[in-house]
Amino acid sequence: YTLTMVIEERGAVVGKLNEQANAKLNAVVSFLLSQGVAEQHIQSMSVNLSPWYEHTPNGREHKGFILSRQVRVTSNQLQNYDTVLDGAMKRGINRIDQFEFINSNPEKVYREALIAAVDDAKDRANLIAKQMGVTIAGVISISESMSYNQPPVGVRMRVQQEDAFSLPGQTDTSAAVNVTFAIEN
């Protein structure tokens, strides 16, 4: 899975906001590392600073600034995602911007799909050739195209008898080949 979390601080002094956000970030990163998330699977470079306004009966009032830091985590330990979420929230994460299930080895899955597509092309060509009374003599040209479909980011949740579980759906990977075969009578 891939998870994007946000630390957000509000106040008048940018330097102080940055210190507070960095302290929370350090706590979150330490926690993630303690949960077995590898350092290379934690990204925390994104910083955003914007003015903070509130609407009052007298109009829009400038209150200070909003400083936010994004933390992106990738993990293949699906059984720990709830522990990671709980622990990160306790250490200063204000919100979750994105949570999605990902295929951790798309190249392997694509290669398997490509092999199946080539086998299918050969089988179909042989079937057609047999019906036409000819034989396949070789390949003139071959090309491929790739398609990768991920389920929507919004993962459906159901609650049954006070137990919640997620339904991640499935990821479809397909490969298509266009083959021109040579035939002989």
3D architecture notes:
Residues 150-166 have low confidence and may be disordered. It is built from three helices and nine strands, in the order E-H-E-E-E-H-E-H-E-E-E-E. Helix 1 (14-34) runs antiparallel to helix 2. The relative contact order is 0.17. The chain has two domains: 2-100, Alpha-Beta Plaits; 106-184, no CATH class. A hairpin with a 2-residue loop joins strand 7 and strand 8 (163-167). The strands form three sheets. Strands 1, 2, 3, 4 and 5 form a five-stranded antiparallel beta sheet that branches. The protein starts with a strand and ends with a strand. By secondary structure, the protein is of the alpha+beta class. The chain has helices at 14-34, 81-90, 106-132; strands at residues 2-11, 42-43, 47-56, 59-74, 95-100, 135-149, 156-160, 163-167, 172-184.
**Which fold name corresponds to the CATH topology of the largest domain?**
Alpha-Beta Plaits
Summed up, the helix count is 3
N to C succession of SSEs: EHEEEHEHEEEE
Parts with pLDDT < 50 across at least 5 consecutive residues: 150-166
- Principal-axes geometry comes out as elongated
Number of domains: 2
Mean pLDDT: 85
CATH superfamily of the largest domain: Protein of unknown function (DUF541), domain 2
Task: Give short descriptive properties of this protein.
alpha+beta; 3 helices; 185 residues; 2 domains; two-stranded antiparallel ribbon; Alpha-Beta Plaits; 9 strands
Brief characterization of the structure:
By secondary structure, the protein is of the alpha+beta class.
